[in-house]
């Protein structure tokens, strides 16, 4: 756990970057600091590893006051990831990742073995070990930056806008990889971003700061979206917050409808029977949804091929939020959203009407929760 207790940072020119910050970042969880430019996010983060010294207040790591710790020792227990990855340009990927273990006195062999393990963990091919940073894409460099921060297996990670410098598609992928990785490694992470969508996607807790370095609200994403503490937070969180909040609302009692499906390569006549003249979902041999088939539009008989499929329509994953279910239902040409189980196989479908009813139920639950 990291605890900020009445932490203030006043720069020598009189700028108050952080003002009386009280905040706890729980162990094994991701706490995101978010807010407009200049609100003191980076200053707050860098005070944790003492790249910046607080003017007053205390920052504790576990029970220990960081002010009393040797800064070098403190930093060895804290991984640090920054925008543009900050890799050493003249060192190979493996040597970049192995930098901290080498400082800790690991043998070259052990450090290289660890680098290979981490490359795999962040989803890069082993052959990249001998490349130089300039030979990698921006997204790959960020993965190496994450691997480097994890090298000595620190319990704490500080991440300062790590995904901001890459394009939106790569960014979305890095965010999903981050979530999967964090589920596996369970580090205590403080993550800085100016992007509220990123904050609510990645954070177990989200702390919204306002300019002047004052905490406006710290709460789990769902609470932030549904119960913003004041106008500033409501405004910052944005207009479509109701829709975003659906990501975090559990589907509750929403039951899936049984969805008849035909396997790719089956006869068209079978699809017609299953669909009763309308749309039918086509699945792989493993029952993974592949696309929808409009049997009313098919004149010829023969095998169902990929060329017959309409690929529009997202698939909602088992355990996803109501937003994902609503998106699947609304984007499906049949009006039924396909839902898969944990193994990726078709579990059933939902109609937009059923999802809207579940949204109503979730709202009622949330209101009851707020009232109690
Ligand atoms: N070394 C410094 N000397 C004086 N003022 C500084 C210094 N570093 C930062 N500041 C100021 O402190 C305030 C907070 O800066 P900080 O970088 O922590 O904000 P931030 O929320 O991370 O901003 P951004 O999202 O733009 O990176 C800003 O007004 C900034 O100009």
Automatic annotation (TrEMBL):
One of its GO terms (molecular function) is ATP binding. It is an enzyme of class 7 (translocase). Its EC number is 7.6.2.9. Keywords: ATP-binding, Nucleotide-binding, Transport. The keyword Repressor does not apply. PANTHER family: OSMOPROTECTANT IMPORT ATP-BINDING PROTEIN OSMV. SMART domains: AAA (SM00382). Residues 2-237 form the ABC transporter domain. It comes from Nocardiopsis composta. This is ABC-type quaternary amine transporter. Belongs to the ABC transporter superfamily.
